[in-house]
Amino acid sequence: MQDNTKKYLVPGKRYYVVRAIDGILSLLIRIRPDAAIGIPRKILICDIAHLGDVVIATSVIPVLKNLFPDARLGFLVGSWSKCVIEGHPHISWIHTLDHPKLNRSPVSRIEKFRRYANQRRKALAEIKAVGYDVAVELLPYFANTIPLLWQAGIPVRVGYTSGGYGSLLTHPLDWVTDNRHIAENHFDLLRFLGASDERHKALLHYDLPQNYCESAADAPVGGKYLVVHMGSGAESKNWLAEKWRQLVIRLVEEGNTVVFTGSSQKEDAEIQRVSEGVTNCVNLCGKLNWPQFVDVIRHAGILISVDTVAGHLAAAFDKKAVVIFNGVNNISQWRPYGEQIRVVTCVADCSPCYLPRGCMPMSCIRNVEVDEVFDQYLQLKN
User: In this predicted model, what pLDDT tens digit does every residue of 163-174 receive, in sequence order?
Assistant: First the structure.
């Protein structure tokens, strides 16, 4: 659980390990950053978390390009999120690193560590070869890449202290829990590089490659439709299947074509149960590559989803969306960063709990009623 008084976002026993490591590092390493950062030629953005996190991370790109128009940017991501930034006109280099803690693949823990070790060696060599002047680590919680950036010898290393290894940063920022969006917390990191509210705050927005639709080839679906995205990478984020079915029936009765998106076999089976016997439903689960998925979201009338990357994509393209949230994290911080996004949750006394897997009842999302979601849809539609 998060402890705001200790300013670490590290769960469980790992908290004490990270705290001990930081204590040792603070005694062994004395970093004195230069007063002036100068004008960097090459800047590395780091976020090895999952798809939605990396979509959020793209919000710093417009600010950095405005601050340093001649600088070239690199991005360090998990391999699972590389697709988000491939083809981006402002990203010259992409490096990948799959941390075992963030790796959701079904392979063994030993295999995850083996892959991580191999990728880390490769990423370190690549980063050294590029010769970055500045690195900005955007992960506020454990599994950041700060030790790698220090080992690579990048002169200016900006990041949060809340995930550990803050002593290896030249420009550390303590995490403060508030109700600002995480993108605005990232903006605080850019203040070290000269970003100011007056000149740069308005530039803060999701910045995705515009060639997604060109790469999508044939349109996966045509005509007017809305998208329902039921699944996520965390079971605690999922709404009840019977409620999804009631909602879908009402949406179809309104005259909508409902397009389902998703990726796993489990999601596909759930979609089949929810849509069984319901007309005007199209199941695209597991049938879309990343550009096609983005294209489907971009051209939807409205998106209805749980807390997952689909909501952030809708915000990136200024689409209307209803997103069903649980109360594990601070919703104000992690909701999609867009003006046409409606969030539905069931407020609980224990929210936000910051429990990585949630709790058994999960009343904060399971008690969300169909009428609440449908009402938000009607408001957006009208």
Answer: 889 999 999 999
Residue 5 has pLDDT above 50, yes or no: no
- 236 bridge partner residues: none
Q: What one-character-per-residue DSSP string does 193-251 give?
A: GT--HHHHGGG-S----TTHHHHT-S-SS-SS-EEEE---SSGGGPPPHHHHHHHHHHH
- Based on the number of CB atoms within 10 Å of its own CB, is 379 exposed (0-12), middle (13-18) or buried (19 or more)? exposed
Q: Are the beta carbons of 276 and 269 closer than 8 angstroms?
A: no
Average pLDDT in the 278-285 region?
Answer: 95
Q: Tokens representing 128?
A: 């050294």
- Span of 86-95, 223-232, 367-376 with lowest mean pLDDT: 223-232
Residues 177 and 367: their CA atoms lie apart, in Å, by 26
Average pLDDT value for the chain: 90
Domains of the chain, with CATH numbers? 14-203 (3.40.50.2000), 212-381 (3.40.50.2000)
pLDDT of residue 328: 86
* 3-state SS, residue 300: coil
For 226, list phi and psi in degrees, rounded to 5.
-120, 155
State yes or no: pLDDT of 356 exceeds 50: yes
> Both tokens of residue 293?
């998925």
Q: Whole-prediction pTM value? A: 0.91
d(CA 185, CA 178): 9
Give the alpha-carbon dihedral of 21, 26, 32, 38, to 10 degrees. 30
Q: Which residues have C-beta within 8 Å of that of residue 312, sequence separation ≥ 6?
A: 51, 52, 55, 56, 206, 336, 337
C-alpha 199/C-alpha 67 separation (Å) is 9
Question: How far is Cα 324 from Cα 306, in angstroms, rounded to an integer?
Answer: 5
Tell the residue number behind the tokens 């690193």, with chain if given.
97
pLDDT digits (tens, 9 = 90+) for 227-255: 999 998 888 899 999 999 999 999 999 99
Distances (CA, A) of 160 to 142, 185, 237: 10, 10, 26
